[in-house]
């Protein structure tokens, strides 16, 4: 079904239309960011955080402990994001101290019983870990108190030290680990949680090129893993078997952990936003929505693709798919430094969705009136995206939802069109919304579940070679990954090749 979405796109900035294709693929002439040694990456981030905390004193962060799964079994370990950001260490029970005056960085290791080596193998040597992440020293936790008290008595006035003591900046959830090392905020070492949360949010919200390189690496592996699912999908399999194909592809490529539980929803499950039961049988006529991403150095990709289980879109599923892709194309074209997320990126995509649904005969009436009545929210109840980094819903000064886009921001762009029974039923019972819906026609679309298409986009920091401010500096990390194409025809082609290879193996 041709609905003429291109004509509906109405770019806010006509000049940008010419470079639209460059947003969909790796922009020509843009040098892709490269992963740098971990020590270099962390040293730069420590310097950046120091710039956010103008006063002196120390920063204390802790890696966090193993989390119990059941009895004496633990979940796979993942360090606290704020700790890993500065320290680059992925070991439970560690801490770190950043001297804000000198920049000296000290890792703090837990003292563990020697017998633990029998069960868990030898601990890494303190010096090895310190040199790997560019730390100036590594000490055991019993030496933390002495280090801080010596610093407090050596300093007299200025910076973070004064007659009232040495200031240690930390986060509420990380103070207990410091207390366990004998520093409880009484005496000459004072603790404060007033400044560090905002400083971390500001710093983490604007990525360095090295961090963007980590996200690109996560995207490379994750995009290829999405394709692996398309090639292996056979109707009649369980959703979790597609999840297994994703995990296998990521681990095979060297990335062991996902950034969040993989969402693999077929049929109506595709319309469940955070569906991760992944336990249904995939039907021949189903669309399958997969939202999954692996972590590289704890930086996660967050990619969504939707494909037809049997390898070919129907006219109906193709119409919804193409509409969603048109929404994403329109939103991507507006991602640039200075753009207002809600007005410039989110709103145009919603307007476009209502135009499309209207063309399909599913809604009717004036588009502006529908937006006022929040009819768009029936079919797309979530925002167009969020910040992305060490956390899948990453932190920034405005929280996970972007406000005004800036150089250094990395965001997801993820429009969706869903047919959720609960939301449609509610709308049909709502006098402000029901007249906009074509209930009879909608019935025939509910089995589709939904479509979401999600890419990760970096606004390259100013001064980066090949990037810089403005449109030229916007890099679609998922497109640059060179896998998991979005055009419906391209998806069908990958699936056809996968099916042919599978048949050849069977012969
Ligand atoms: Mn997302």
TrEMBL record:
Enzyme class: hydrolase
GO MF assignments: manganese ion binding; metalloaminopeptidase activity
Entry keyword Ribosomal protein: no
Domain Aminopeptidase P N-terminal as annotated: residue spans: 37-156
Domain of life: Eukaryota
Cofactor(s), names only, from the UniProt record: Mn(2+)
Family, similarity comment: Belongs to the peptidase M24B family.
Protein name listed in UniProt: X-Pro aminopeptidase
